[in-house]
Amino acid sequence: MTAVADAAPTPAPSPADSDLVRAARGLPVRRTPVWFMRQAGRSLPEYRALRAGTRMLEACQDPDLVTEITLQPVRRHGVDAAILFSDIVLPLVVAGVDIDIKPGVGPVIAAPVRSVADVDALPPLEPDRLAFLATAVRRLVTELGATPLIGFAGAPFTLATYLIEGGPSKEHARTKAFMYAEPAAWGRLLDRLAVSAATFLTTQVDAGASAVQLFDSWAGVLSAADYAERVLPHSRAVFDGLGGHGQGDRDVPRIHFGVGTGELLTLIGDAGADVVGVDWRVPLDEAARRVGPQRSLQGNLDPAVLLADRATVDREVRRVVAQGRAARGHVFNLGHGVLPDTDPGVLTSVVDLVHELTAT
Ligand code: CP3
Questions:
Q1: Percent of the chain with pLDDT over 70
Q2: So where are the chain's domains?
Q3: Which protein residue's CA is at the shortest distance from atom 21 of ligand 1?
Q4: Mean pLDDT score of the chain, rounded to an integer?
Q5: Could you tell me what reaction this enzyme catalyses (predicted)?
Q6: Going by CA atoms, what residue is nearest to atom 29 of ligand 1?
Q7: What's the mean pLDDT in 114-122?
Q8: Which residues contact 100 (CB under 8 A, 6 or more apart)?
């Protein structure tokens, strides 16, 4: 064999042929792709240095900062995808809703949506206000070369929880009460949020993002019946906003994720996902059974495992990789975002181990 043949697997010539996109479509891969939700963020000292003195929502609208922060984890960890540095509330902020992201808390809404009139007063998102986003994505795609960029948006339900609760919440009781008490206004609210999420996603895809993830982080608080009837149609509308599969330039893989969604996995797939994101509660072989052979899986190492000893990390990574083999395709990820206290060196070693275990 020649030296070239002995070298690492041939890198993908283009993002569209990357292992991330191939696994998402259920095609054979060179090795299992791996990236981490919240890979750009406080676990990285270079992120903390760059963010010092700039508010989160300002940073998200500065193409230079977005580009640099998005690239940091790709350079450091050698992950198989970048995810745009932004936030799920950004489309609302750009539309003019008064929101702040408080460090250690999350998004806080100055005037929460509490009445039917509040729903109808929400400002629409004008696509031409997203020029900064298109600029950042185009720059990133150039810098990333063969590494795919994942664009993302918040799903209508999860955004509605922030708007109605006024900030982060555990039970989402006000949200559910509004959903039951005002079904027509609820439908209009989620319709509007679906339109702005679709606008946010199409801007990213048109500027060159190679895949998209719709975060419905808090959908797991709903019963399957309520999710199916009152939420799923609106999430499907976001994906439909990208156009049908096989239609044109926006035909990129769609990842759909929520926390605590074990009872919803089939429905989350039905909303229009190529890849269903799974948290750590359901093992991937069981998740594969639930979503069926038409969809790939993403997940699902418990982020807390990364705070444990190396032997535990090693054992759990091997288990996730082995159980992921039951899926049509597997994108290795955590079951939720990287915790701020995570040692970045551990993240890099997880990338290396997943690649080593799955190289063909
Ligand atoms: O690396 C990435 O994953 C890309 C960047 C990203 C951020 N937010 C950056 C961020 C993504 C994909 C999000 C999505 C997001 N934002 C979600 C869905 C994902 C999930 O975690 O379920 C949600 C629910 C939000 C709302 C939100 N924004 C929360 C709960 C927080 C954390 C608050 C805190 O300080 O603990 C934010 C702020 C936020 N978004 C940070 C980052 C890097 C921290 C801000 C900081 O550095 O001070």
A1: 97
A2: 15-357
A3: 337
A4: 96
A5: uroporphyrinogen III + 4 H(+) = coproporphyrinogen III + 4 CO2
A6: 106
A7: 97
A8: 55, 57, 107, 108, 110
| pLDDT given at position 11 | 66
- Give yes or no for residue 284 having a pLDDT over 80: yes
108 strand-pairing partners: 100
Which CATH number applies to 15-357? 3.20.20.210
Distance between Cα 326 and ligand 1 center (Å): 30
Distance CA(221)–CA(19), nearest Å, equals: 33
7 CA distance to ligand 1 middle (Å) = 38
Q: What is the pLDDT of residues 156-206, one digit of tens each?
A: 999 999 999 999 999 999 999 999 999 999 999 999 999 999 999 999 999
Residues annotated as part of the active site: 38, 42, 51, 87, 162
Pocket-testing residue among 68, 87, 193, ligand 1, by greatest number of atoms within 8 A of Cβ: 87
Gap between the Cα atoms of 351 and 360, Å rounded: 16
Whether residue 40 has its Cβ less than 6 Å from ligand 1: yes
- Bridge-based pairing of strands 211-215 and 254-257 is parallel
